[in-house]
């Protein structure tokens, strides 16, 4: 378990608003290199919004996100792959008509050098050689996630559990230092969840990838995370070791739906109720 | 597009990654293509002018249709201005030849490159627009270019059109259909190889990724704007190349030939052939080019049986072309290539296909 280590990702005072809706209010946290960090919270708590801020889809109005000591705010989304951030999506986001192999090869996009011209002349200009080298790396990922048997199937024809795995494979193909997983186990049965948990741990331990994960399955979260952060109504209500977080009174209230003074301290609504 | 199994025959194993990424999925497929090319190489010696000119036209239009398929089939964008780029290639090649005196066989690819630049400029709206809105934006490019052809006397000769020299390749004057056929065949093979290679390399995959899920494509490090415009560029290159070949074949280029009707015909070719399929572009072109002639024959034959039809023969032909296309889209919406894959699967997997 990673207790101390250098910071990989740090978010400070993130405020994200959509018109009058405050999706995230003053959220700060940090992720250390090599840990599995989970973000949990009830539906609509702002978990995916937080992930979207990191991956660049949303731009917070206030706050600062630094990754490896450099600011992430204002960098374009397609820079993320090159600096080592990969992610998967809550709703499947595979390239449905492409084969599984091609899907994963797209993850190598920023590592490949050939362009449309050298690609068209495939045999001369080194595109072929480069493609084959990266094919080897992709096959390693395919072995790692045990999806050899569907290699050539179009991604859109696979079962839900397999698609989630292919999406993970595609994110791994980026060679990320930080991987953002948005509900990697949603809609899976127990066996698939166990497999997925094993893959995430392997990814973390063997490849040394730092994982930031959103997950609803408390069992999984408690078992595999090093640290957990809890969001509710866009506010951070607890953070720390899994056991500490589970024991936290605010977290219990959030999940049981009880009123919590912590969420209303600014407006003073709690006093009125 | 729905998936049709395409198993390899027994004993045809792939033991290296380079084998597995080869263009032809089976050895038989490869040999059939080589045999087909060999047959085409000797075809001018045996076939009469009519067949050769038909094959020539199919080749020229197939190159342009292939370009449109990169845009529509690969990248999932739409263009209603493809014939304007086709026309631009034809005028550009004649213009380069007439002003600089470069040999025509060099002017033809140069015209393609010039059309690429123009296509990328007209592709800029694609950075922001999608679907029907993009269709309207490309419709504008059709009319802008058509107007440009009619007015820019220096470039296109205006309303009088411009003359396109015959091709002289290393002292051989390609003045007959038989000789010109080889030039077109060369460019058809080069274009189809290039696009097949594109499909299995980095940028081709990126184009398809942009079509299938642009949000995750962006996370994978694909610059959406760049690839959307690139797709217009590649598509215009083949349009321009096809147009240049067309211009030098006819010897005379005039603005009337490149209307929106032809743009729609190009769309029909790739939809009927199969969106996103390289082979489908060729099949669709053959279908669209030969259907009217086939229907003409059929209508004439009917008129012999039913003399009363003699007068309305021309209308019946036009109507039946339309009817065949409609029926085709209802019963085979995924194109000829899908039908071919089904036939291939049912014959390979017999009796276990379904």
End-to-end Cα distance of chain A? 42 Å
Major beta sheet, strand line-up of chain B: 1-4
Helix content of chain B: over 70%
Contiguous runs where pLDDT drops below 50 for at least 5 residues of chain A: 268-273
The biggest beta sheet of chain A is recorded as: 6 strands, mixed
Give the oligomer, counting copies of the same chain as homo and different chains as hetero.
Answer: heterodimer
User: Averaging pLDDT over every residue of chain B, what do you get?
Assistant: 90
The largest sheet of chain B, given as strand count, sense and whether it forms a barrel, is: 2 strands, antiparallel
β content of chain A, as a range?
15-25%
Q: Compute the gyration radius of chain A: what is it?
A: 20 Å
What's a concise summary of this model?
Chain A has 273 residues and is of the alpha/beta class.
What does this structure look like?
The complex is a heterodimer of chains A (273) and B (354). With 273 residues, chain A is an alpha/beta fold. Helix content of chain A is 37%, strand content 23%. Chain A is built from 11 helices and 10 strands. Chain A has helices at residues 47-55, 100-107, 116-120, 127-144, 160-173, 190-206, 218-224, 242-247, 249-256, 261-264, 269-272, and strands spanning 7-18, 21-32, 36-40, 62-67, 70-71, 85-87, 178-182, 210-214, 227-232, 235-240. In chain A, the strands form 2 sheets. A 6-stranded mixed β-sheet of chain A has the order 6-7-8-3-9-10, sandwiched between helices. In chain A, helix 2 packs parallel to helix 5. The termini of chain A are far apart. Chain B has 354 residues and is mainly α. Chain B has a domain at 26-259. Helices cover 72% and strands 3% of the residues of chain B. Chain B has 15 helices and 4 strands. Chain B has helices at residues 17-20, 27-46, 49-74, 82-100, 104-123, 131-151, 153-156, 177-199, 202-212, 214-219, 224-250, 260-273, 278-305, 313-331, 336-348; strands at residues 162-163, 167-169, 172-174, 252-253. In chain B, helix 4 crosses helix 5 (104-123), helix 4 crosses helix 11 (224-250) and helix 5 (104-123) packs antiparallel against helix 11. Chain B is globular. At the A-B interface, helix 2, helix 3 and helix 4 of A face helix 1, helix 8, helix 9, helix 10 and helix 11 of B.
């Amino acid at each position: 378990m990673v207790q101390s280590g250098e910071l990989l990702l740090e978010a400070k005072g993130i405020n994200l608003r959509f018109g009058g809706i405050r999706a995230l209010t003053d959220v700060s946290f940090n992720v250390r290199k090599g840990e599995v960090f989970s973000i949990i919270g009830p539906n609509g708590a702002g978990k995916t919004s937080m992930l979207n801020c990191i991956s660049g889809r949303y731009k917070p109005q206030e706050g600062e996100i630094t990754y490896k000591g450099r600011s992430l705010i204002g960098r374009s989304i397609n820079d993320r792959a090159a600096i080592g951030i990969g992610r998967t999506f809550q709703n499947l986001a595979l390239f449905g008509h492409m084969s599984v192999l091609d899907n994963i090869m797209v993850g190598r996009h920023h590592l490949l050098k050939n362009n449309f011209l050298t690609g068209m002349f495939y045999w001369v200009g080194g595109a072929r050689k480069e493609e084959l080298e990266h094919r080897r790396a992709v096959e390693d990922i395919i072995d790692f996630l045990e999806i050899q048997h569907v290699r050539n199937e179009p991604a859109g024809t696979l079962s839900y559990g397999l698609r989630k795995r292919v999406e993970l494979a595609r994110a791994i193909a980026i060679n990320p230092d930080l991987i953002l997983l948005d509900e990697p186990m949603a809609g899976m049965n127990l066996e698939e969840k166990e497999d997925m948990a094993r893959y995430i741990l392997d990814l973390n331990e063997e490849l040394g990838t730092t994982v930031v994960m959103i997950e609803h399955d408390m069992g999984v979260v408690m078992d595999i995370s090093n640290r957990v952060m809890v969001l509710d109504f866009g506010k951070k209500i607890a953070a720390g070791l899994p056991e500490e977080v589970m024991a936290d009174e605010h977290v219990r209230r959030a999940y049981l739906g009880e009123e919590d003074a912590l969420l209303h301290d600014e407006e003073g609504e709690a006093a009125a109720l | 597009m729905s998936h049709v199994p395409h198993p390899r025959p027994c004993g045809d194993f792939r033991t290296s990654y380079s084998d597995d990424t080869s263009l032809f999925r089976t050895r038989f497929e490869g040999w059939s293509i080589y045999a087909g090319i060999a047959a085409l190489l000797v075809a001018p010696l045996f076939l009469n002018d009519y067949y050769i000119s038909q094959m020539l036209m199919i080749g020229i239009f197939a190159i342009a249709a292939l370009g449109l398929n990169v845009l529509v089939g690969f990248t999932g964008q739409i263009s209603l201005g493809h014939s304007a780029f086709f026309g631009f290639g034809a005028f550009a090649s004649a213009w380069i030849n007439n002003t600089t005196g470069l040999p025509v066989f060099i002017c033809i690819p140069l015209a393609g490159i010039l059309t690429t630049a123009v296509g990328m400029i007209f592709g800029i709206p694609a950075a922001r627009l999608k679907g029907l809105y993009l269709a309207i934006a490309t419709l504008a490019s059709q009319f802008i270019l058509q107007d440009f052809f009619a007015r820019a006397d220096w470039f296109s000769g205006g309303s009088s059109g411009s003359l396109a020299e015959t091709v002289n390749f290393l002292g051989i004057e390609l003045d007959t259909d038989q000789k010109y056929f080889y030039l077109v065949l060369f460019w058809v093979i080069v274009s189809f190889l290039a696009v097949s290679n594109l499909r299995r390399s980095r940028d081709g995959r990126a184009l398809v990724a942009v079509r299938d899920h642009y949000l995750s494509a962006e996370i994978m490090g694909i610059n959406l704007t760049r690839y959307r415009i690139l797709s217009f560029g590649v598509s215009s290159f083949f349009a321009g190349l096809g147009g240049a070949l067309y211009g030098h074949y006819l010897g005379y280029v005039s603005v009337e030939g490149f209307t929106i009707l032809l743009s729609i015909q190009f769309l029909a070719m790739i939809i009927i052939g199969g969106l996103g399929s390289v082979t489908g572009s060729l099949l669709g072109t053959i279908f669209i080019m030969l259907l009217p002639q086939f229907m003409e024959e059929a209508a004439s034959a009917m008129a012999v049986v039913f003399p009363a039809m003699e007068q309305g023969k021309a209308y019946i032909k036009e109507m039946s072309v339309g009817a065949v296309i409609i029926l085709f889209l209802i019963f085979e919406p995924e194109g000829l290539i899908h039908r071919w894959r089904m036939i291939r699967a049912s014959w390979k997997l017999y009796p276990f296909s379904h």
